[in-house]
Amino acid sequence: MNRDDLAALVRSVRPSDADRVDDLFTRTRRDELFNEIVRTPNGAQTVGSRRVRPGWGARLRAPSVGRSRPGRRLAMLSAVAALASVAAIVITNSPVHPQDASAAVVFRGGAGGDVVATVVDPFAAQAQLDAEFAARGFDITVTLVPVSPSLVGTVIYTSDSGGTGAIQALQGGPCITEGGGCPIGLRIPANFSDAGYITLGRPAKPGETYQSQTSAFAPGELLHCSGLLGAQVGASESVLRADKLAVTWRAKLTGSGPDGTSAGYSASSTPPPADDYIWDALMTAPGTVMIWTEPQPWPDDASHGAAFNRGC
Amino acid sequence: MKSAEQRFEELYETHFARVSGYVLARTDWHSAAEAVAQTFEVAWRRLPDVPLEPLPWLLGVARRVLADQRRAQGRRDALFTRLTQTNTTPADETDDELGESIRAAIAQLSPLQQEALLLISWDGLSEREAAAALGCSRGAVALRLHRARRLLRVALSRSSPRDKALGQKSPAAVPVHASTEEHA
Q: Cβ neighbours of residue B14 under 8 Å, at least 6 residues apart?
């Protein structure tokens, strides 16, 4: 059974009444709902008093280490330096309490009595991180997950038992993520009393796969400044071989699927045609990369393109 | 420059049907109406956070709203229930036996595998968009899809008359086990 057959089978069991949106929401009801919603205040002023309480986990990411090629070192150092400067600003910014020099988390006061927390040592033990939040009266559990190099030390995910999304991620790091932004801090309401859960990125241990990653061409990642973004497959072999990378090629399939959506990408360890172009890549584990290719040239104005080549 | 209300109206009109379709495919009508309303209420309240490509973000909100409903109502997983409903009308002329096999096979996937698979097959998202909706990386979605498809092929090869009808070979047996990344 090929992928198209499988997609058709899965689509065939989509409940048909899911398309009866107009029956559920008539035009009148839809307009009423719209008016009802926009009558309520919107924006940040409603935080803490919102009526709707969806479980909410901001998706976050961010920067730093490990690459072997001297030509790419400058970009990596720039990313690390930028992260360090962010941390330094936080440290000098009126901490809520005198801070232990060895603290893994820096706390300071934010607007409206909120607490702003920045993790300055993502290599700290999980128990230490939990304890530092507990010392501020927060029931916040920190989980560390292996991430690709540029996301080490960043906030990957937040949630809370009340499902309020009260713990907000603060951007400011130099990394580039698919979701936009580079979260390196947290804003916690002063009256936050639910259980909170924070996931931070840590370096991967040998044999671990990344649980979060950004493009391998982003600053701080292995293939940044490698010249492979937009390059033809045939020109990539020497670079990939030099980095001793195991590659899974995701070549764009032509045509469309039976449900009218894109046919998607193949997955193979065999390289696609040498004249195909590299559009994106993700490190899935240290030494393992997934590379997306298409027959068409990669457009210079592709999103993130300029940012990916920053410092090269 | 557009006002907040104008921007929200554009968002609302453009994505209402897709968001409603997503929700309706996963829960009953009563809960769906509430979930759609809550999803757009969140979008209005968090309008400054809505990205330039709003649909994955909106489906991510809807997904969490549904999860909250399930927690609040103490129900079994709504999608699982939906998949195993016998009175659900399939969209195509899939025969009952095959449809039942497919629904059972999907229900056996982990929740994250189900979501990755269905966001793409049912809701027409790309892998990148599904990743944004699920709050994970595209690599994680690709991995979940790969595993989901592999498990589906195995499950269907054991029970589906479609393969026999198509005269296709059954895929090689692979171990069926929960993937280590699904708890993340």
A: B54
